[in-house]
Fold this sequence. Notes:
By secondary structure, the chain is mainly α. It contains 3 helices and no strands. The chain has a domain of about 35 residues. Helices cover about 85% and strands about 0% of the residues.
Amino acid sequence: MGEIQGQEEGNISANVQKFKEEKNAKKAILAQGYTPNKRRLEITSITAFVIGWLISLFVTYRTMIEIPSIVMRSMIIIVSVFGGIISADFMSGLVHWAADTYGAVCKLR
């Protein structure tokens, strides 16, 4: 009984080691394709998003304080939220379609 249990533990250890090796090999392949240009693109995109979001927040606040009715403010917020969701979904779909149609992964290298 103890011998069988030892063999099972050995098999589990070997499987875990094999899994770790495969995972490390996949990480190495991914790291090869991750160039400094891609990193710069990510940082630029995140920075542009934060700046745009802050500007949008400021403009929204300035517009909302000029509207005296709380009902009108609420309606504008609700319409804006749904409009933003629909616009974001459309734009992300358009970008993904363009990337799938005209883009290639190797163009950013």
